[in-house]
Structures are given as C-alpha cells and as structure tokens.
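Hi R.,

Here's the chain you asked about this morning:
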Amino acid sequence: MQIGVESSKAVDQRRIFVIDEDEVTRAALQFMLHDEIETHELASLEEAYAKGTDWLVPDLLLVGIGIVAAKGLPVLAEIAKRFPDARILVVTGTEDEELALEALKSGAHGALIKPLRLEDVRAKVDTILGRPGGAPLVQIGGLTL
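And here is the predicted structure, written out as tokens:
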C-alpha cells in the first residue's frame, strides 16, 4: 500500500535499519517508510551488525530508546564506528525524554517522538537524509533555524 509516495524518493537507493526491541514500533516504522525507502526492521543491534555488510549498509538507523537504556550511551559511538556514514535517530516516548536528550549529546542526530505519525516520521527522515520535503530541524519564536 502506497500512501503519498514520491517516486523520486522511492528510487534514490537509500536504506534504513529500524532497530527496536518493540515489535509494534518496528512494524509501524517499517510500514510508514518502506514505500519511499528501503527499510529493514531488526530486533537487535546484533542483527543489524550481521545484516549491515559491505553491500547492505544503512544510511540511517532508527534506534529504540530501550536499546540505548539497556546498553548505555556508549552504544551510540559503537554504532557510529560500525556504520560511520550513517545517521542515527533515537525513537522514544516522552517518558524517556531525559535519556533521549543525553543520547543527542552522545552522538544521535535527532529523535522521533511517540506517538509516531506518518507525515512527521517521513519529514524527519527526509530532513536527516537531506532529501527534499524535509521538516525544519528547529523552530524558535516562529523562526526556522
């Protein structure tokens, strides 16, 4: 099922790994993104490392906050070392805001905040990947920075 798909995005040969222990979150993100970008859902970092070979390297990793909580903030540096050209978004709820902020300070490039909405997820992914149609990264007092 294709929802508002832009064909130019669907053929740009980028790849996302959705890594989250929560099966529902993984499935929702995969569903929201797979029409416009090659999306793989994985339950653990170990699966991502095994899948992320020379020919299947992600451009973006969506990492569940539960993985960061379980493995600690240094896991972000580990991910960056393993996939040096990839960007990292932390997927979190408002209840884990403090840890998400620490993740941003420790190397994550942004966050997706639950509840996840199709338009918001696609806009954030576009922004992080530098694709047309991205959302502004920061809005303060009506100004986009």
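One quick note: The beta strands are 15-19, 38-42, 60-64, 87-92, 110-113, 139-140, 143-144.

Cheers,
M.
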